[in-house]
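ok trying again, last paste got cut off:
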Amino acid sequence: MDALARARVIVFGVGGVGSWCAEALARVGVGEITVVDSDTVAVSNINRQLVADFHTVGSPKVTIMLQRILSVSPDCRVHGVCAVYDEATADTFDLDSYDVVVDAIDSVASKALLMLRATRCRHARLVSSMGAALKTDIFSIRRARSLDEVTGCPLARAVRQRFRRLGVSPSRRFPCVFSPQLVQNAAETTADLTANGLKRVNGTMVTTTAAFGLALAQLAIETALRRLAPASAAEHQIQNNP
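nice, full thing came through this time. structure:
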């Protein structure tokens, strides 16, 4: 608990997956949490996002997430950044000042950029969530030791294709949460404009996003303990992998 109280974690994306992850980090006692998201709450978010209800529609997701974190962990040092992570804003984030960088971004370009930047850090370590859209079998959700080990995920495939097209790759491996469940990608767009562009319709359920988010939080917790309490982390690994 002392190690987690010293931990500094930044969460990129507090939508379907990231909102559950961020609150879980607060509930286990992470001492400093920064959340980053450019979007506002929409009615269509209510079925799966922790920040969304009929009272928060229209509010910035970052604002609601900060309120939730402080409501369960008043001593947590919280920061909110209402912005997109992209080439224009990446340099404004000192990723290496954190212990753990959490990727819950659903944009391929932004996700790939964060992977490249975060894996270059000397201290900070990255954990990442792959796509939860259209997945329904939460019992198939698992971890991978690296992006290359992720199977059955259109988002992971798109990110790997982008890396190959650009001729770049992450500087180190990082753990991922993913589901190998094979689904048909609808990828429809509507005329509804959000802060991140036209709305994409790839629905999912709260059971899926929450399970992804809590699994992502578990990766972040384990990573933080390895950075800040290596002896405890080693004992945990021994107990869970006899």
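cool. Residues 206-228 form the longest helix (23 residues). The chain has a mean pLDDT of 91.
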